[in-house]
Design goal:
alpha+beta
Amino acid sequence: MSGAGDPHGDPGTLTDGDLAGLVHALADAVVIADTEGTITVWNDAAERLFGWSADEAVGRPLDLIIPERQRDRHWDGYRRVMATGRTEYGGRLLEVPALHRDGRRLSLAFTVTLLARPGSSTPWAIAAVLRDDTERWLERRQLREQIAQLEAR
C-alpha cells in the first residue's frame, strides 16, 4: 500500500498537498502567524472555534482573538520570541483566554511551535494548535470556589 500522494510507494512520505489537507482537516484549530503577528493560516477548526472565516481572519493581526486586557503582555512576549527564536513555552500545554467573534470569552488550551527555515534559527512564523477548554476551565473555577468556601468554614 503506498502513502498518500507518493508516486513511489513509500508509506512514510506525504506531499505538501497532503500536509496542507491534514492541517485544514484537523479537529483542533491551527493558526499560523508571521513575525509581525499577522495571521497567515486559519484552518476549518479555527473558523468553528472563533467564528471568523479564513477569508476574514487571514491577513489580520492576532488581536482578532486576543482579549484587550492581555494584548500588551502577549505582544511583548511575541516580539521577544520572534527576535530571539526561543520560547519557554515550546512543548508545553498553555492555557489562555481568547475572544470569539461574538464577544464571548473562551479559555483555550494550546501548544506553539516556531517555524524556521532549514539551517536557520530565526523563525519566520509561529504555529499554534488550539482547542476550546472553556467548559473544563469553568468546572475547575467552580471547584476552587467550593474548596475556598469549605476552607473558610
